Amino acid sequence: MISEEDIKHIAQLAHLELSENELKKMGKELSLILDYFNSLKEVDVTEVRPAFYSKEEKRLSLLETTREDKTQKEKNKKEVLKDAAPCQEKGFLKVKKVI
Amino acid sequence: MELSQLTIKAAREKLLAREISALELTQSCLEKIAASDKEIGAFLDVFEEQALSQAKQVDDKIKAKERIGPLAGIPLAIKDNILIEGEQCTAASQILANYRASYDATVIRKLKKEETVFLGKTNLDEFAMGSSTENSGFQTTRNPNDTSRVAGGSSGGSAAAVKADQCLGALGSDTGGSIRQPASLCGVVGMKPSYGAVSRHGLIAFASSFDQIGPLAKTVADAEIIFEAIKGKDSNDATSLTIPQEKKIKKPSEIRIGVPKEYFVEGMEKAVEKNVKQFIHKVEGSLASIEEISLPHTKYALASYVLISASEASANLARYDGTRYGLSDPKNEALTLKDLYFKTRGECFGEEVKRRIMIGSYALSSGYYDAYYLKAQKVRTLIRQDFEKAFQQVDFILAPTSPFLAFKIGEKTDNALSMYLADIFTVSINLAGLPSLSMPAGRANGLPVGIQIIGDRFQEKGIFKLASFLEQLTTDK
């Protein structure tokens, strides 16, 4: 069972505003899902390496991921910005005061 | 017969023979969309004008007897998490409702070079998280076989559009089954390529160690044509690779098939089990052998998948913060920076997306990392090794794609875990980075059943060849 405090803490870490109802529902569902994950406890993983990156991938990508250091023409930044950011000025992103 | 019912292969022959024009073909698809999409809800956006003008350009080339690419003039639908420059790309999320793509995904650039016609963008579960398209921030796609049922997901829009003859083929993306499961539920062919076979540059990221773009089509041959057009190494996606030369491709009579006993479990629909077994029985005599194999860690695959993919998603979706994307009013001076983050994400993300971000943040948070994330990654290694061992014994694996038939809309929306179980037979393949193709294996209770052919890494050609053979063997003439 996951506590309400835990849920609130995780929501803080994830930058999510959750309503009281959402917090309650999320607590119930996450508890069920975490229970389901507990089945992993029975698997013996002594001396098993995590699969962050397979040996095969490493071998293949080392062969292929380097390229010549040449400049490439990219679009001008104003054009790229205009489609994504809701608030901007003179081609710059406008952000909230940080300090 | 309406032109939109044609296969890609047949349409191309007719285009080259000048029996039909690309314009007529595209018009036929657009008419079909206009007539049926109110009910089905496959499309989030339709590009009528551009599609017609793209088609006309191809007709001019054909008239001038210029060479055209294999997909020239062929109308395709694109899942709305793949970027087409200048067009909306929402990933079915409210947080991207106003976003227009500023560049082409590599797969789109490749298809444009072939002069493919783009009909529009198809519906999905928000950020591709789901198995029914019911998590879309805009609409639910209905299954063309029975509109009271889901089309599957997350590429449900693409699968339904292919099934309803609104297009000749489509692109989808598959993180834990999102191409194959809707293909199975709608009764079309869907293929998830090997990890690294197709560039993801311009695909809105969900879980980067799983995501792959792949085709949905009416026939195996059509899926292969699309795959050939989009595959290959791309310097903009460092995980993409040149597909190594395949081992010798065997004749069907030399192929040994394995059927994993762990893929017939309690809780799967009896009708699906019966149908898949009948299919296997029907093709048995034409292949070298079909034997039972074991993939012993299968029952841990779903937990491992949900943990790892949610962890990756929580990081990938951190960029949607209200400053760079979002709906919140940035002119509201009362909001602090932190308020803006919390409000934007709280208001714009749907329930399932929030749930996955929470699961991922939990699994990665201090104190739980070893018990959840690291453990899941170790189990992932064991699942990969299961397949490595299996492929020393057999050439391909045959298994059901989905444990159940297309379910009723609303049937599984109350319980997140029961929805996750829809992917129980597909996630292992993504954990291992393998290619797999789902194809129709008949019908049960009037609804399509799908079977998947799983191959070793980069054995796409072999899969297509075997699938074509099985398709011929089992299609009622």
Q: Give Rg of chain B in angstroms.
A: 21 Å
The side-by-side strand order for the widest beta sheet of chain B comes to 1-3-2-6-8-7-12-13-11-9-10
Q: Estimate the strand proportion of chain B.
A: 5-15%
What is the distance, rounded to the nearest whole angstrom, between the alpha carbons of the first and last residues of chain A? 39 Å
Oligomeric assembly: heterodimer
What's the rounded overall pLDDT mean of chain A?
82
Envelope shape of chain B:
globular
Distance between the termini of chain B: 17 Å
Secondary structure tally, helices of chain A = 4
Major sheet of chain B: size, sense and barrel closure? 11 strands, mixed
Helix segment tally of chain B: 15
Number of strands of chain A: 2
Largest sheet of chain A: 2 strands, antiparallel
In terms of DSSP E residues, the strand content of chain A is under 5%
Helix content range of chain B: 25-40%
CATH architectural arrangement of one domain in chain B? Alpha-Beta Complex
Mean pLDDT of chain B: 95
Which structural class should the secondary elements of chain B be placed in? alpha/beta
Q: Strands of the biggest beta sheet of chain A: in what spatial order?
A: 1-2
Instruction: State the order of secondary-structure elements of chain A, H for helix, E for strand.
Output: HHHHEE
